[in-house]
Design goal:
Two copies of one chain form a homodimer. With 693 residues, chain A is mainly α. Chain A has 18 helices and four strands. Chain A has a two-stranded antiparallel sheet. In chain A, strands 3-4 form a two-stranded antiparallel sheet. In chain A, a hairpin with a 5-residue loop joins strand 1 and strand 2. The two termini of chain A are 38 Å apart. The mean pLDDT of chain A is 86.
Chain lengths: 693, 693
Amino acid sequence: MDNQLLLYAVPLSGVIALLYALFKAGWVSKQDAGTENMATIAGHIADGAVAFLKREYKVLVIFVICVAILLGFANTGRTDSSPIIAVSFIVGAICSGLAGYFGMKVATKANVRTTNAAREGLSRALNVAFSGGLVMGLSVVGLGILGLSVLFIIYNNQFSEIGQVINLISGFSLGASSIALFARVGGGIYTKAADVGADLAGKVYEGIPEDDPRNPATIADNVGDNVGDVAGMGADLFESYVGSIIGTMVLGAAFVPVFDSMGVLPIAGVILPLVLAATGIIVSIVGSFFVRVKEGGNPQTGLNTGEFGASFIMAALSYFIITAILPASWTAESGVTYTSLNVFFAVIIGLAAGVLIGLITEYYCSTHHKPVVGIAYQSVTGAATNIIAGLGTGMMSTGLPIIVLSAAIIASHQFAGLYGIAIAALGMLSVTGIQLAVDAYGPISDNAGGIAEMSGLPSEVRERTDKLDAVGNTTAAIGKGFAIGSAALTALALFAAFRQQAGVESIDISEPVIMAGLLLGAMLPFVFSALAMGAVGRAARDMITEVGRQFNEISGLREGTAPAEFAHCVDISTKAAIREMILPGTLGVLVPVVVGFVSKDMLGGLLAGVTSSGVLLAIFQSNAGGAWDNAKKRIESNIEFDGVTYGKGTEAHKAAVVGDTVGDPFKDTSGPSLNILMKLIAVVALVIAPLIQ
Amino acid sequence: MDNQLLLYAVPLSGVIALLYALFKAGWVSKQDAGTENMATIAGHIADGAVAFLKREYKVLVIFVICVAILLGFANTGRTDSSPIIAVSFIVGAICSGLAGYFGMKVATKANVRTTNAAREGLSRALNVAFSGGLVMGLSVVGLGILGLSVLFIIYNNQFSEIGQVINLISGFSLGASSIALFARVGGGIYTKAADVGADLAGKVYEGIPEDDPRNPATIADNVGDNVGDVAGMGADLFESYVGSIIGTMVLGAAFVPVFDSMGVLPIAGVILPLVLAATGIIVSIVGSFFVRVKEGGNPQTGLNTGEFGASFIMAALSYFIITAILPASWTAESGVTYTSLNVFFAVIIGLAAGVLIGLITEYYCSTHHKPVVGIAYQSVTGAATNIIAGLGTGMMSTGLPIIVLSAAIIASHQFAGLYGIAIAALGMLSVTGIQLAVDAYGPISDNAGGIAEMSGLPSEVRERTDKLDAVGNTTAAIGKGFAIGSAALTALALFAAFRQQAGVESIDISEPVIMAGLLLGAMLPFVFSALAMGAVGRAARDMITEVGRQFNEISGLREGTAPAEFAHCVDISTKAAIREMILPGTLGVLVPVVVGFVSKDMLGGLLAGVTSSGVLLAIFQSNAGGAWDNAKKRIESNIEFDGVTYGKGTEAHKAAVVGDTVGDPFKDTSGPSLNILMKLIAVVALVIAPLIQ
C-alpha cells in the first residue's frame, strides 16, 4: 500500500469527524427545549458555563503566549529543533481549547433537550444525550488528528530530518497537555466547590434544604458538571489521545528503520499511529449507530454494543493496517528481530489490559460487589469507620490494576520493544471518539435530571433520566480503566522518548542524584493533590457563606416565593477555580524545567517518580471516591445488616454522605488531574530534552 | 588508635547499657504503686500486655523457625555465605523480642508509679515516667549493639573473607526487621482496635459513655498503649538502629580499602559504625542525667536538654572517632579521593536533616500552627471538610521533608559516596537510646493519666500527667523526623548494598522490567496500609459489639455498681491482632523473595518503588493523623472563628473527633509500619542477593 497516500488520508478522517459532529450538533439544537421554565434554567446553566470558559481561556491565553515566546526563543538557532515548535504549541493549545468549547456548548444544549425528550420516553432521551456526548467525542478526536496530521505533513515536507520533525510535533502535545491540566484542575475545582458547598450549606445553617431548587448554589452545581465533567474531561482525553499518538511517533522513528528497498516508507513506524487513530475515528462513528434502546429496554445494552462493537472492529482492522504498513519482519539496530504480527499483539495486549483494569475498577466501585457493601456496612458505626473503610478500599484497589499494568508493560515490550508499550496505549485510546461520547453522556443525563427537578416536572421524568445516568456506569468504569492504563503506558513511552532525545544512556535508580529525583517526583502528586483539595475546601467554604447570606437576606427565599441570586454563586465558583488552578498548573510545567536544567539525570528520576506515584494515587483516589459515592447510593436504596434496615435519613446514611463528600474532590478534582500531570511532566521533559542534552 | 581494641570495647557499651537499664528498672519497681485500686487496675493492664506478648511470640517462634530452616538450607554449600546466617537471624529475632519484652514490662510498672508520683508533684512523676522510658531505650540499644558486635567478632575470627562476614551479619538485621514488622503491625492493630472500638461504642449504643472507666474496652485500650506504642515502637527502633549499622557496615567493606601500611585496620569502614553506635549509648546515658524538672517548671526543658545535649555531644565526639579510625584521606577503587573529614560532614548532614524534618513535622502537627488551626476551622462545616482538610494537610506535609531528604542524599553522597548516605542515617540514630526513652515516656504518661481517671484520683493528678504527656510532643516530633529520615536513608543504603552483593551493574529505570518492578514496589505500601486499616476496622467492630453486649447483659454496669468484663475485650483485641498481623507480615517477607527469583532487575525496581512510595505514604499518614489529633485537642481547649467559640461538645468538636478516629490507624498502625516494611524488603533482598546473583 502507498504509505504516502495513507498519510494524506489521515487529516480527512479528522474532517469527517468534525463534519459529523457539526451535523449531530445541529440535530441536537433542533430538538425542543421544553417549557419556558426549563429553557430559562438551562439558559442560566449554559450562560454560566460559557462565562467560566471565557474567563479561563483569557488566563490561558496569557500562559500560552508566554510559553510560546520562551519556546521559540529557546529553540532559535538549533539544528535539531526550530522556533517553529512554538507554532505547534499554540496550535495544540487552540485545538484543545476548541474541543472543550464545542463539546461543552452542545452539552449545555443537550441537557435540557434530554429532559424534554424524557417526558416522552427513554429511547428518545438516550438518543439526545448520547448525541450530545458524541459531539464532544468527535470534536476531540477530530481536532486532535487534524491538527497533528496537518502539522506533521507540513513539517515533513519542510524539514528533511525525521528527528527534527518529531521534535517539532511534540510541541503540539505540550500545548494540549498544559491546557488539559489547567482545564481539568480549574473545572474540577469549580464543580466540586459548588457541589460540596451546596451540600454542606444545609449542615451549617439550619433550615436550608440540601439538593433543593431553592438552594442558590444549585445552578453553579449544574454549571460545574459541564465545565468539569464535560469540558475538563474533553481537554483531558484530548491530551491523552494526542500524547499517546505522539509518544508512539517519537519511538517509531527509531523502531522501524529505512526500508525503501522493501517498498516500505522510511517513516512507517511514525505513520502507523496516525493511521490507526484515523481508522479509530471512522470506527467510532460506525459504533455510534449501534447505540439505541427500545422503549422499556435497558440503555446499557445499547451503550455496550456501541463501545464494545467499536473496540472489536478496531482490533480486527488494526491487524490489517499494521501488516499493511509495517514490513513482515525486520531487524532493529539493537539486533532484535521484530515482526508486524508482534506489533499487532502489543495492540491487543493494550486493549486487554484496559478492559481488565476497567473490570477491576467496576468491581471495587459498583454497588453490588463486596467492597462497596463493606463500606456501607462500616457506615453503621459512623462517619469515621466509613472513611477508614473507603480509604482502605481505595488503597487495596491499586493492587490488581498495577499487576495487570506491569504485566502489560513487560509483555508489550517483549513483543515490540518500547514501541510496543506506546502502541499498546494507543490501542486503548484508538476508539476514544465513542468512549468519550459515553463518558460525556453521563454528566448530560445528570444535568437533565437536575433540570427536571428544578422545573418541577413529574417524577417519572426524573426516574427516566436517573435510569440513563445509572447505566453509563459500567461503560464509564471501562473508560476509566483505559484512561488510567493508557496514561501510565503513555507516560512510560514519553519517558523512553525523553531518554532517547536527551541522550541519557541509562537512568540508574541506585545513583543518588536519580534517587533524589525519584523521591521528588513521587512527592509531586501528593503536593498537587493537596493543592487541589485545599482549593476545593476553601472555595466550598465561600460558597457556604454565600448561601447562608442569601437565605438570611433575601426574604421569601426560604418559602420559595423569591428567587435566589444564582449568579453570585456562579461567580464565586468561577473566581475560585480561576484563582486556584494557576499554582498547581504552573507547578506542573515549571518543576521539570527547573529540575532538568539542574541535572538531566535527576529529571529522569523525577519522571519515574511522578509516573509511579501518580498512577497509584490516581487509582487510589478515583476508586475511593467512586466507592464512597456508591456506598451512599447503596444505602439510599435500603440495605439490611444483622436484621436492621438502613436507608435514607438513618445515621448510617449520614455517615455515608460524609464519605461521599470526601470522595468528591478525590474522584473529580485531584484524582483525574494526576493522569494529566504525569504526562505533562513527561512531555515537558521531552520538549526540553534537546536543550539539556 | 588500635582498632582491634576498639572493636572489643563495643560489646562492653552494650553490657553497660543493659546493666544501667537493670538498675533503673529496679529503681522503678521500688517506687510505691499507690492505692490498692490503682494497683489492681495496673495489674490488669500489665497482665493483658504480657498475655498478648506471649501469644504474639508463640506465633513468631514458628515463623522464625521456618525462616531459619529455609535460610540455613538455602545457604548450605556456598562459599560466599554459610548456613550460620540462620543463627544470626535467630539471634536478631530473639534480641528484638527481648528488647520489646523488657521495655514493656517496665513500662507497665512505671505507668501506675508515675500516677502515684503525680499525686505528690510533677518533678517526681517526670522522673518515674522518664526512667521507665529509659529502660526501654537502653534495652533496645544495648541488646542491638551487644548481639551485633558479638556475632561480628566471632564471625570475623572464624571467616577470613570480610564479604562473607558481612553477609552472615545481615541475617541479624533480617531477624530484627521481620520481628519488628509483626510487632508493629500486631501492636498497632491491637491498640487501635481497642481505642477506636471504645470510642465508637458510645456512638452505636445509646447511653454508653465514651472514655469512661465503666466502658469495658478501657483496659484493652490501656494495654494497647503498651503493646503498640511501647513494645511495637521498641521493636521498630531496634530494627532501624540495627539496620542502619549493618547498612553502613556492608558499604564500609568496599568504601575503605585495606590500609595496613598506614596502620589502619583493613576493616576500618566496617568497624566505624559499631564504634559510633557504642559511643552513642554512653552519650545517651549521660544525656539522661540532664532530664529533670523543678516543681512548677516546664518538663519540656528537661527533655530538650537531655536529647539535644546528647545529640550535640555525639556530634562533637563523632569528629574525634571518625578521624581516629579512618585514615585522613584515601583513594577509593573508583578513583575518587575521600577524607575522614568528609565522612564526619556526612554524619552532620544526617543530623541536620533529621532535626529539619522533625521541625517540619512539628509545624504540620502542632496545635499552634496554621495547618492544625486550618483543620479545626474546617471542622466547623462538619466531618467531611475536616477529613478533606486533614488529608490535604498530610499530603502537603510531604513536600518539605522530601526536599530536605533529597538534599541530604545528594550532599552526603557528595561527601562520602554511598557510605556517606548510610552513615548519615547512622548519625540520626546514634543517640537512639535517649530518643526512644523520650518516645516511650509518652505512652507511660498517657497510661498514668488513664489509671488516675479509672481510680478516681483527684483532678490535679490527672492535670499533672496530662502536662507530662503534652510536653513530649516537640521532642517526639523530632524523634519522628529522625525515624522517617533514617528509614529512607537506611533503605537506600541497603538498596545500594543489595546492588553490590547481587552483582547488578545498573538498575536502569527506563527498562520495562525494572519499571514494572517500580510500579509493583510503589503499590505494596498502599496494599499494606489497606490491610492494616481493614484489620483495625474489623477488630474495632468486634469490640463495639462486645461492649454493647456487656452493657445489655451485665446489670449494674451502666450504673457503675457492677464491674465490666475487661478480660473479654482484652481477648478480642489480642486475637484480632495476632490473626490480622500474619498476612501483611508474611507479604513483606515473601514478595521480595518471589520477585527476586523471577528477576533480580525487577527486584531492584521493586526496592526503589517501595522506598519512594513508602516514605511518602508514611509521612502523609503519620502527619495527617497527628494533625487530626491535635485539631481535636485544639478545639477542646476552645477556639474562636469569626466571633464564635467552638469547644468540647460543639458540632465542630464532633467533626474533629471523626478526623481523630480516622487518623488513629493512620498514625499508629499503617503509617509507622511502612518505615519497617521498606527496610525489611531491602534486607530480604540483601540476604537473598548471593542466591539470585
